[in-house]
TrEMBL record:
Residues 826-1078 form the P-type ATPase C-terminal domain. Its cofactor is Mg(2+). GO terms for biological process: Golgi organization; phospholipid translocation. It holds the Pfam family PhoLip_ATPase_N. It is a multi-pass membrane protein. Mg(2+) binds at residues 380, 382, 798, 802. GO terms for molecular function: ATP binding; ATP hydrolysis activity; magnesium ion binding; phosphatidylcholine flippase activity; phosphatidylethanolamine flippase activity. The active site is at residue 380. It comes from the Eukaryota. Residues 17-82 form the P-type ATPase N-terminal domain. This is Phospholipid-transporting ATPase. The lineage of its organism: Eukaryota, Metazoa, Chordata, Craniata, Vertebrata. ATP binds at residues 380-382, 482, 523, 546, 580, 660-662, 772, 778, 801-802.
Length: 1148
């Protein structure tokens, strides 16, 4: 009953009425607006400030600002912190707004956004579906609508939807459609793409609704002139659509370097606090022993009652003075560097795709250095690795290979390569290309086997033909494979022209023939083959069959043994080239045998018990003793450079996983073609268990059997460290393996403790293929890797079904392909071709990582050396919180004197050029292990900073102690000492950055040496008589530069300080390669020549792949696809012609 049906829903039931916006609006359902950005106009300011103050440095300077408002402890004015902090926050906020696109986002068409629940909309051919829609009627017979779901599941083969009979009669009658007032009740929104349950109430009757009557957002209307639909279903509008529910949430991505900086800043805080504590204690001791007795000369403030109070206040004073330990310019510089490196990506002409006029695009500027640390790449298949184009490449007929000859390789084919001339065939497809004239010659000579081969291809299929213009055939294929095969037969002279439910018309070498269609033995994933039984014009009953070689070899007549062996060798060659293969065979059937078989066929399809098994048995009786004709080889055309790109990434120790919604056979075939799987692998394991225990055993029983034992070290580790989060250690397999797992088994593997077994197994594989996956499962696999492995993940895809994993990965890359713009709009980077990925990672990513690491190492070093001088000076100034430098030098040190050299290093430096970066992918390895800047490197910077500050303070201090001018005047005054120390410091950090620079440009020279020269110019200006006399309270170092720098001993002190600071660095860099060499420091020369001894026999594997779906055979023989709706009873046809169909369409 209706009430019991509603009670079966697990969640709240939803209601709507067609063409009634007032009623539907009372339920508060969402509109069709989809928002992929994090920010809005209203939440931008608070949300962005909240995210920025999650950086400890920003929070630190906010606290510092409040401290500077207290005059009793602040030696500096409050605006010295407010202005830089506001500049930092403003620049970062503007950059985040640009990255997010929150103020420029628009829906493609406003009418999409304005539609509401209960509206009836019209969709046209090749138009994307804009919301989840209940199909009402269409231009095709019986309310059929063909759709492509590549954006949802990655499959390019057509699927069929059918409206219910009560609404299909509405057709395109606007009067009937506008008066339609059906009511829908259904379950609430969920992310299950293959499930929908509801009830339509119309004219007092209830009609059951299921998934086959629903058009999901993201699919595209194909081969259907028009269709009408009701915005209904799960009220899947905007964020409630199944597509968006599978897309995941937008999160703010931060790099591993950002997280590391937060930790290091915390360390610096602790170190800063420790120094302030030591200096405060020193101040307390000094005041207690000396300062107390000198109050006549150094009186205490009124609010200072004892040395303890004075020490407490001094603690906070030093906390303010030593704030440059965490320079506020750090994050501004980081953002500028990231922005600059993002421009390099946008400007790279070698990542510009001219056919579509699309350059590479860095849609975020916060993840550039992360591109240099990627360890795992999760890739979609359809539209990402492939072009969604099937090409008839080769064939084997009666033991002879036709196609591209040995002297014509794939790479050698260009636009100038001579093609086969099909001008003799007026019905040939002008877009079809073939490069072997011998096949045409055999066809013209009337070769019996060649004719029979192409006759089989022109008859054994479910393709629909449309001829709106005389001689202009348009094929509507349910799968791209079938379209390629029928098109090939068409060009070689066997033209499939039209069909009815009972006949097939073929033009054979210009002669029209009509074959009577007796039965279609439909394709299924278990059978892996399809057959047709026809009666020829000569009254012969013929069966034509095509399918997987592994299946058809068992069905061949014994007389075909020698031909079979030759054909299998050809199939091996096809498989090695990555081509998709099908074996073709035929059988001539005795008329009496067919009549008897037809009777059994009818009885089996009418059986109420074990119907499927009985039909399979009947099929097997017919499909035996087949005569082999040959095999087809179709190229699932890859994007340019995909195999080479994956090989290069593998050399960089980047592992490629393919996560696709497509069939297993198709995905595996592409994996071999792309070099993800190799023929020389020790094994390819398939996980297809139907329960937890089976999946567990399949995951490890062959690759590493000892992992099933409790004594396994990793099991012991996991048992002793149950706290979360923890990281799974690296394991080494006992061979070179690949793994294939389907979505059904993956659902079990992602649950409970099985997810650890899954992760341990897949991480030991060189290549992993996950097929038949939902978009949500793609994201779950990425999240699993992030949760238990300390690695950087990258997801790349081109369709809406890839959005969830693009959002889940550390880095998301969208390909601007054929499947819409959803992936690109949700990505961090957008490229047009998969092959650009190697340049994005190995060139831009590696450069960005190296530059960022050099920048951070140098930045921390120069600020440690700068700040720690105050610490040493405190011991000689009574711990009075007096600065060792001139105030103007403190102001300009990070802002002017050292900013340009470090930006030059961070924007222009290259350890090797782009050619060598691509030629030696092994150079990418340090970034994956974060070797150039980590906690250890930070400690090195700190130690080096302490040493440099020690040298820079005590060498000048001891050398000028009690020194005098030639006229007998002392030169060891505070101002001369300050000038000497700051000049020596600037010279040291300038020489240091010159040593760090490996790629010098004119700009590098100007910025590096120009900044040092600019310092001396500013020095004489700030210490000039004019400024000091005009503003004596601001410029207090009157004539110090002129009187100090003209002394030779001062320059000798500076040179001595520079030498003592730099010499250990040079020595360490010289000795490190000798005593601590790295694996990438001495790369071997590539081997260009392979010896014959390296060649070995390839293992046999089937390259069968056929992206077909069961049910089209029944659809054709039922007559529902025919435009002419004559009054014949289709139910009997449905049972007799193709009883194996599982179609859910109710016959009318």
């Amino acid at each position: 009953s209706f009430s019991s049906f509603l009670s079966s829903f697990s969640e709240q039931v939803r209601y709507l009425q067609a063409n009634s916006r007032e009623l539907n609006s009372t339920f508060g359902y969402p509109n069709n607006t989809i928002k992929t950005s994090r920010y809005s106009v209203f939440n931008f300011l608070p949300l962005n400030l909240f995210e920025q103050f999650q950086r400890l440095a920003n929070a630190y300077f906010l606290i510092l600002l409040f401290l500077q408002l207290i005059p009793q402890i602040s030696p500096l004015a409050w605006y010295t912190t407010v202005i830089p902090l506001m500049v930092v926050l403003s620049i970062t906020a503007v950059k985040d707004a640009i990255d997010d696109g929150s103020f420029s986002y628009r829906i493609k068409e406003d009418k999409w956004m304005n539609i509401q629940v209960g509206d009836i909309i019209k969709l046209k051919n090749n138009q994307p579906v804009t919301a989840d829609v209940l199909l009402l009627s269409s231009s095709e017979p019986y309310g059929l609508t063909y759709i492509e779901t590549a954006e949802l599941d990655g499959e390019t083969n057509l699927k069929v939807k059918q409206s219910i009979s009560v609404t299909s009669n509405l057709e395109d009658n606007l009067g009937l459609l506008s008066s339609f007032d059906g009511k829908v009740r259904c379950e609430s929104p969920n992310n299950k793409l293959d499930k929908f349950t509801g009830i339509l109430t119309f004219k007092g009757k209830n009609y059951t609704l299921d998934h086959d009557k629903l058009l999901l957002r993201g699919c595209i209307i194909r081969n259907t002139d028009w269709c009408y639909g009701l915005l209904v279903s799960l009220f899947h509008l905007g964020p409630d659509t199944k597509l968006m529910q599978n897309c995941g949430k937008s999160t703010f991505k931060r790099t591993h370097m950002d997280h590391l900086l937060n930790v290091l800043v915390l360390w610096i805080f602790l170190f800063l606090g420790g120094m302030c504590f030591i200096l405060a204690i020193g101040h307390g001791i000094w005041e207690n022993k000396k300062g107390y007795y000198f109050q006549d000369f150094l009186p205490w403030e009124e609010f200072v009652s004892s040395s303890v109070v004075s020490a407490i206040l001094t603690f906070w004073s030093y906390f303010i003075i030593l704030n440059t330990m965490v320079p506020i310019s750090l994050y501004v510089s980081v953002e500028i560097i990231r922005l600059g490196n993002s421009f390099y990506i946008n400007w790279d002409r070698k990542m510009y795709y001219a056919p579509k006029n699309t350059p590479a695009q860095a849609r975020t500027t916060t993840l550039n250095e992360e591109l240099g640390q990627v360890k795992y790449v999760f890739s979609d298949k359809t539209g990402t690795l492939t072009q969604n184009i099937m090409i008839f490449n080769k064939c084997s007929i009666n033991g002879i290979i036709y196609g591209m000859r040995n002297h014509i390789s794939k790479k050698a084919i260009t636009e100038e390569t001579e093609k086969v001339d099909f001008s003799y065939n007026k019905l040939a497809d002008p877009k079809f290309s073939f490069y072997d004239n011998t096949l045409v010659e055999a066809m013209k000579k009337g070769d019996h086997w060649v004719h029979l081969f192409f006759l089989s291809l022109s008859l054994c299929h479910t393709v629909m033909s449309e001829e709106k213009v005389e001689g202009k055939l348009v094929y509507q294929a349910q799968s791209p494979d079938e379209g390629a095969l029928v098109t090939a037969a068409r060009n070689f002279g066997f033209v499939f022209r039209s069909r009815t439910s009972e006949t097939i018309m073929v033009v054979e070498m210009g002669e029209t023939k009509v074959y009577q269609l007796l039965a279609i033995l439909d394709f299924s994933a278990v059978r892996k083959r399809m057959s047709v039984i026809v009666r020829t014009p000569e009254d012969r009953v013929m069966l034509f069959c095509k399918g997987a070689d592994t299946i058809l070899c068992q069905l061949l007549h014994p007389s075909c043994r020698s031909l079979r062996d030759v054909t299998m060798e050809h199939l091996d060659d096809f498989a090695f080239e990555g081509l998709r293969t099908l074996m073709v065979a035929y059988r001539e059937v005795d008329n009496a045998f067919y009549q008897a078989w037809s009777k059994k066929h009818s009885e089996a399809c009418l059986s109420l018990e074990n119907r499927e098994d009985k039909i399979s048995d009947v099929y097997r009786e017919m499909e035996k003793d087949l005569m082999l004709l040959g095999a087809t080889a179709i190229e699932d055309k890859l994007q340019d450079g995909v195999p080479e790109t994956i090989t290069t990434l593998n050399k960089a120790k980047i592992k490629i996983w393919v996560l696709t919604g497509d069939k297993q056979e198709t995905a595996v075939n592409i994996a071999y073609a792309c070099n993800i799987f190799e023929e020389e692998m020790d094994g390819i394991f398939i996980v297809e268990g139907k329960n937890d225990e089976t999946v567990r055993q399949e995951l490890r029983k062959k690759m590493k059997p000892e992992s099933l034992l409790e004594s396994d070290p990793v099991n012991t580790y996991l048992n002793t460290k149950p706290q979360m989060p923890f990281r799974i250690p690296e394991e080494v397999p006992n061979g070179n393996y690949g793994l294939i797992i389907n979505g059904y088994s993956l659902a079990y593997a992602l649950e409970g403790n099985l997810e650890l077994e899954l992760l341990r197994t897949v991480c030991m594989c060189k290549g992993v293929i996950c097929c038949r996956m939902t978009p949500l499962q793609k994201a779950q696999v990425v999240e699993l890797m992030k949760r238990y492995k300390e690695v950087v993940t990258l997801a790349i895809g081109d369709g809406a079904n890839d959005v969830s994993m693009i959002k889940a990965a550390h880095i998301g890359i969208g390909i601007t392909g054929q499947e819409g713009m959803q992936a690109m709009l949700n990505s961090d980077y957008a490229i047009s071709q998969f092959c650009y990925l190697q340049r994005l990672l190995l060139v831009h990513g590696r450069w960005s990582y190296n530059r960022m690491c050099k920048f951070l190492s140098y930045f921390f070093y120069k600020n440690f050396a700068f700040t720690l001088m105050h610490f040493w000076y405190a011991f000689f100034s009574g711990f009075s919180a007096q600065t060792v430098y001139d105030t103007w030098f403190i102001t300009f040190y990070n802002l002017v004197y050292t900013s340009l050299p470090v930006l030059s290093l961070s924007l222009f430096d290259q350890d090797v050029n782009e050619t060598w970066s691509l030629r030696f992918p092994e150079l990418y390895d340090p970034g994956q292990h974060n070797l150039y800047f980590n906690k250890k490197e930070f400690v090195k910077c700190l130690v080096r900073g302490i040493y440099s500050s020690f040298v820079l303070f005590f060498i000048p201090m001891r050398t000028i102690h009690n020194s005098v001018h030639s006229d007998g005047k002392e030169i060891s005054d505070y101002q001369s000492f300050s000038l000497l120390v700051q000049t020596a410091l600037l010279c040291v950090v300038t020489v240091q950055i010159a040593l760090d620079t490996t790629y010098w440009t004119l700009i590098s020279h100007i910025f590096t040496w120009g900044s040092l020269g600019f310092y001396f110019c500013i020095l004489f200006l700030l210490y000039s008589d004019g400024l000091c006399l005009m503003f004596p309270n601001v410029f207090q170092f009157l004539g110090v530069a002129r009187n100090t720098l003209n002394l030779p001993q001062m320059w000798l002190i500076i040179i001595l300080s520079v030498v003592l600071c730099i010499l250990p660095v040079i020595g360490y860099r010289f000795l490190k390669p000798l005593f601590w060499p790295n694996s990438w420091s001495c790369l071997p020369l590539p081997r260009w020549i392979k010896t014959l001894s390296s060649i070995h026999t390839r293992p046999r594997r089937s390259s069968y792949a056929f992206s077909h779906k069961q049910g089209f055979g029944a659809l054709i023989t039922s007559g529902k696809t025919m435009k002419d709706k004559t009054s014949i009873i289709f139910h009997l046809n449905y049972c007799i012609k193709s009883p194996n169909s599982r179609s859910s369409f109710s016959p009318i």
